[in-house]
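Exercise 7.
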Amino acid sequence: MIKNGIEVVKRNGINYLHMNGRKIKHKPWLGDIFSFLYDFIMSKSIFPKKFEASIEKHTLFLKNEFSSVHNSNVLELATGSGNLSEILPCDNNYMGIDISEGLLRIAYKKFTKAGFKNPELFVCSAEELPFQDKLFDICICNLSLNFFSDLNSVIKEVKRVLKNQGIFICSVPVAERNQKQSVIQGELYSENELKEIFEMKGFRFTSYDFRNGALLYFKLISKD
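Solution. The predicted structure, written as tokens, is:
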């Protein structure tokens, strides 16, 4: 499951990566000490004020999309506080990554409470995944694609760890749907830019006919 040369040390349900006897470190998330406020900020500020979107519509759409996903190997990029635990059926094999230890601790409690058996959470970046090739059926990235500093590396890594014809589902704010020009952190792409970027990396791009403020929802299929 883990690439050769990487050692995994688990503490309190969280996996830490080591190489050559040293812990692999990442630039800390600035808001890590405020992890306990993450869900409150998302529901009361980010969704209604930045995205001009409904968090309830967001959750319902994803629940409908993933309701038929069972017994699959699922990877989530930027797990955050673990809200996918309320969306994804618990008979799936879940692995999630994030650079925030504080958020992963919250996520671990949510996934175990939701009935997931052995959810695996890793402190690592999406630019360099620790997993072996062709391991996952589905990869998910909600509301975080705009934060990755090296999107090309992220896409390359996702392509590597997905099985042939594997599915990558994303939601992300896009420039043309930001009608009030709200200040949204990270780099905002357009739908056309995302389509071009992903298709150049070997994915088939399809956007969903679903509107929710500044958010775009799309599906990618990994082509052979």
